[in-house]
Amino acid sequence: MTATDADVVVVGAGIAGLATARALSRSGRSVVVLEARDRVGGRTWTDSALGVPVDLGASWIHGIDGNPLWDLASAFGIDTVEYTVGSFQFDGRPIAWHDPSGVRLSDDAARAFAADLHTVDAVLHSVVADAAPGTTYAAAVATALATLGWTGPRAERVTEYTTHRSEDLCGAPATLLDAHGLDEEHVAGDEVVFPGGYGQYAAALADGLDVRLAAVVRSVSSSDSSVTVGVADGRAFTAQHAVVTVPLGVLQAGDVTFDPPLPEPVAGAIGRLGMGVYDKVFLRFPERFWDDWVIRQQGPAGVDWHSWYDMSRVTGQPVLAALVGGSGARRLETRSDDAVVAEAVAALRRMHGPAVPDPDAYRITRWAADPFARGSYSYLHVGASADDHDLLGTPTGRVQLAGEATWGDDPATVHGALLSGLRAAGRITGAVAPLPVTVLG
């Protein structure tokens, strides 16, 4: 391939890379997208091995108000289901709370616990605002509890819940998350999921683009006049610009080398930010034995198996999904499928009794072990600054990075990845990045 064959090489066919390529293509640029996997979508991955579509990666639009993905859902004809139940929505939806012994909390006890979480969050907001640099989220929670004078089991239940919040939203322990690491997580509007899967976005964005699958990029070399992208099989693609959208974990591992090396402030941001791990265990059962949107286990038994989501609301079939982040996810990735399923079923039987049947089928993710992801999404590691996300996306000559980790307003989100791709395209064209609905073409 010669320099005249493409104006831009985009590395990665996730949402960021596809948005970049779509916008550039619409502006008249020639674009080649190099994707290491045998599919498009990156960390959006819809799988039908259970007989119904489930999202092994990203699942939600986090807050539809002003979210470009909401506009694109309509433009692409993607059906949605409202599912606003997360780590900051701990009441208002049917949630089955179970105490450390596995017994379901009474309605009064569940309301009291939710009230405690509201109280702590109100205090925590002020504590985080005043937190000194280098303060962890765990330390901020401890300060909030000390301010309230709470100790014993009451404080333990709140502490473990906020620990799970860090694991869920950042894929990291609260002891590694910066106190400000969840500042951007309070989203506006309902949250929705997709009966047909998130993969519909990638398929629509990729339609008509020149996407080369199974192209594992190993090097990006730039000069004053061009960029050459080297693939593991020996191919080389040369263009005027390159947009690299590989996940932060891949950059941190050094799986793609840059010549010249990425300079400051990009290199520093790569080192300071964290890459979290968030895995899913889907179990399909012969029939539905649960009644609520979410099942939550308190206490030591819920260290890893604390949250189960009713996917029958989305799939129409009896599927439960356990979402496990941080250290728990990393531990489960070292275990066999059979061992993980056995743990999962034991956790459900602790809450629902021995009548819980064995699942008919299962699907387990291992994002940390995935060589083309090396984790699930970025987070604000203690010692990093929220500015590091945007610094990561700083253009360096003819090369720039894009992806969720480079979008400071909403990192670790699909819409952040989308907007980062549009920003990268706008920098190359010299025009304002197009509105997301104009990505259609």
Your description of this structure?
By secondary structure, this protein is an alpha/beta fold. The chain has two domains: 8-43 and 197-272 and 378-439, FAD/NAD(P)-binding domain; 85-188 and 278-367, Polyamine Oxidase, Chain A, domain 2. It is built from 13 helices and 21 strands. The chain has helices spanning 15-26, 68-76, 107-129, 137-148, 152-170, 199-206, 248-253, 266-272, 312-315, 326-332, 337-352, 387-392, 414-429, and strands at 8-11, 31-34, 46-47, 54-55, 81-82, 95-98, 192-193, 211-212, 217-222, 227-231, 236-239, 241-244, 257-259, 274-276, 278-284, 294-297, 307-310, 319-325, 361-364, 377-379, 399-401. The chain has a six-stranded mixed beta sheet with strand order 6-16-17-18-15-19. Strand 10 (227-231) and strand 11 (236-239) form a beta hairpin. The radius of gyration is 22 Å and the shape is globular. It starts with 7 loop residues before the first strand and ends in a 12-residue tail after the last helix. The relative contact order is 0.20. The model has no long low-confidence stretch (mean pLDDT 94).
Strand proportion, as a percent range, falls in: 15-25%
Give the domain tally. Answer: 2
- How large is the radius of gyration? 22 Å
Rounded average pLDDT: 94
What about the largest sheet?
A: 6 strands, mixed
Secondary-structure content class? alpha/beta
Summarize the structure.
This protein has 441 residues and is of the alpha/beta class. The chain contains 13 helices and 21 strands. Helix 1 (15-26) packs parallel to helix 6 and helix 4 runs antiparallel to helix 5 (152-170).
